[in-house]
Amino acid sequence: MIIGLTGKSCAGKDVVASLMEEEGFFVIDEDKLGHEALAENKEKLISVFGSQILTDDAIDRKKLGSIVFSDKKSLQALESISHPWMVKETEKRARKAEAEGRNVVINAAILTRLGLDAICDEIIFVDAPFELRARRAEARNGTKIEDFRKREQNQKDIITTFETFSGTIVTIINDGDKLTLYRQVKEYCDTILARG
């Protein structure tokens, strides 16, 4: 089974992913895959953005980020290079794990933007109120609420409804303590594992 795991910034996707990994699920982290995509597509990226994005002959994510996050066309150019590679790699890893009899979790904020919901049997949406997520962002990264609000504007396509998805959508609410979250995740994992 392939399960999509999504939700907005600081909702707690990574915590849910790590709990599911502890329960024996095979987790594919799209953020980490995005880093791999930069290295794998280094020459293409240099041809589009120039050698200014390099530090010590490697793609410097901060330098690249300062270009793409201030210009929509540059961001689209980056996504047109990295996203197809990420999707292909995700499908390859997911199918291999499935063939080995493992349940797969695709941890991706931009699950639908990547089109990966198309290969999922179920989707988990991790939800938490905006104010709580903003406080978590400030505590974790020192992100000011104005900046967090701007990031939120860029995540309008991360929603609890999936127009083209016909499978089960499970919402996990992460507005309490870790034990409450763990109980919800454990209950879900037990249900999946009981199916065999």
Give a summary of the structure in a few sentences:
By secondary structure, this protein is an alpha/beta fold. Helix content is 55%, strand content 15%.
**Tally of separate domains:** 2
- Can you tell me the CATH architecture of the largest domain? 3-Layer(aba) Sandwich
Tell me the CATH topology of the largest domain: Rossmann fold
Q: What is the percent of helical residues?
A: 55-70%
Give the amount of beta strand, in percent: 15-25%
Estimate the global geometry from the Cα principal axes. Answer: globular
Description:
The chain has 196 residues and is α/β, with parallel strands linked by helices. Helix content is 55%, strand content 15%. The protein has 2 domains: 1-25 and 103-196, P-loop containing nucleotide triphosphate hydrolases (Rossmann fold), CATH 3.40.50.300; 31-101, Rossmann fold, CATH 3.40.50.300. The chain starts with a strand and ends with a helix. Helix 3 (42-49) runs antiparallel to helix 5 (72-99). The strands form 2 sheets. The protein has a 5-stranded parallel beta sheet with strand order 2-5-1-6-7, with helices on both faces.
Write the layout of secondary structure elements.
Blueprint (H helix, E strand, L loop, with lengths): L1 E6 L5 H10 L3 E4 H11 L1 H8 L4 E2 L2 E2 L1 H8 L3 H28 L4 E4 L3 H4 L7 E6 L2 H12 L3 H9 L14 E6 L4 H18 L1
Helix pairs in contact: 2-5, 3-5
